[in-house]
Amino acid sequence: MGLALFAGLTALYFAIGAVLVLRYNLFDPDSPSRVANAGYAVMSRHAHLSAIGFVWNPLPSLVQIPLMGLSHWWPALKTHGLAGVIQSSMFMAAAAVMIRRIALDRGLGTAWVWLAVGCFALQPAIIVYGASGMSEAAQMFCVLWAVRYLLLWVDSQWPGHLGWAGIALGVGYLARYELVPAVCGVMLLIAVLAWLRPPPGERLANLLLSVSIVAFPIVLSAAIWAITGWIVSDQLFATVSSQYGNESQVSAAASHGGPQGLAASSDWVVISARLLGMQPFVVIAVAGAVALTVLTRRVEHLVAVAAIGPMVLFTMWGQYSSLTFGWFRFYLMAVPLVLCIAMTCWRPGAERPTRWHTGTPVAKLGAVLISLSIAVGFPVTLLASADPRIGNQQLQFGLMSLIRDGDESSEGQWYRRLLVTDRTLADYFDRRNLPDGSVLMDSFVTWGVWLESDRPHQFVITSDYDFRAALNRPWDFGVRYIVAVNPTVTDADAVNRRYPTIWADGAGIGMLALTVYGATGDERFRVYEVIEPPSSVVDEPSASTG
């Protein structure tokens, strides 16, 4: 039954994602950009695994690498990012299977098992981000994987369950950095329980052993990723220190304004609206879990609070402090938090559960919470997604535009035109039948051009071994065109950093050949045909480009 559930939900999420992308051109750019990272590793001029980059965690792109080879037969896997949709569909379906396993472990009746699965798998935001191609699904699966084994450990105290929980969190770290707060919460819970449960003389040894078992896979995963990044890019944690990192992007968005800048709101009303719009019962559920733990002295109610709660708190604090963007999808973990708390209201027993088995008054509370999450929570999430102040990304805007078809001007539907100009520019280069390495560009922003091209080897991109050398003296490396990015889009573009005036005047190394406008109608790219300047025009490269 679990395999059938996985296959059915994977097909459902993929079908929805494929229709949104292929028919309506609706997607979040984070999704195809991860596909591009996978493509760089196997299809760029200098294909190598580290080309997936170190700013974002590698798991989604690693999963997509095998699919890149199939793009020769189905180009949309690459050009439209459907490889990413397959990745997220499979991870979100696997997360739903994990919900089913938790429900069975807790002894829910058959009907409540399927209601719990439906409460998760058919929740509107879960469907959208299962079909989106982004990394939330991989994170979701890994966290629920860890929660399941932590619940088993709380009941059995078998160290093997701790080991599996640690492996799940270690794998999850490779999906998103938000697993770090989850790891902290889990460590704290395990340390407290490992100290309180054994006799006084065994407490310290039990604490050290239990924490070490769960920590080892996590520390190993983080260390391998950090050291690899340091060896390849000279940065241990590129997401923090890199010019392309999250902090740099948030700062640039705040200074430039626009939709991204508005998303990073520090208004607690907005933060609360996004949290409660995702799951309106999250505060009640967490408070109830704490109260039940105090009243019943059973700690399983706190497992989800310890593992998932810190992730939700980090999202809120990150938005308030402008450390991260305040995207609605960042609050997605509130959905499994409430559901896992509800399922821990059941206590596993020796008797076989009936179809609608609840048993205890506490289990009845869990049943009410599941029912309300479906009957009330689903409509609330739909309404929140329809409010542009809450559902604040391209997918929410686009889905609402489909419902309000004809009620909005085409000029306002910029989210329906994403990557259109990237495809046009890719076709511009493809039709010229350029030799390999003829077009230089920083793929941080121009990844869409590379992704849409049928001739990816014509580009010199950021991950190529000769990128820095070609950037400094493009005429010596056979580069015929340079793609410059509008400085108002990003401060991180390597071409602009090397040649600060290239957007305005070609910096003495290029003549303007083409101007490309973006989805919002403003200039996005300028293509310059390379000319060899007098030696006095070219300054030595600055340290920032080295």
UniProtKB/TrEMBL annotation:
Which UniProt keywords are given for this protein, alphabetically ordered? Membrane, Transmembrane, Transmembrane helix
Key word Transmembrane present in the record?
yes
Report TM segments. Answer: 47-70, 82-99, 111-130, 174-196, 208-232, 275-295, 302-320, 326-346, 367-386
Q: What is this protein called?
A: Glycosyltransferase RgtA/B/C/D-like domain-containing protein
Q: Which organism is it from?
A: Mycolicibacterium confluentis
Lineage, opening ranks? Bacteria, Bacillati, Actinomycetota, Actinomycetes, Mycobacteriales
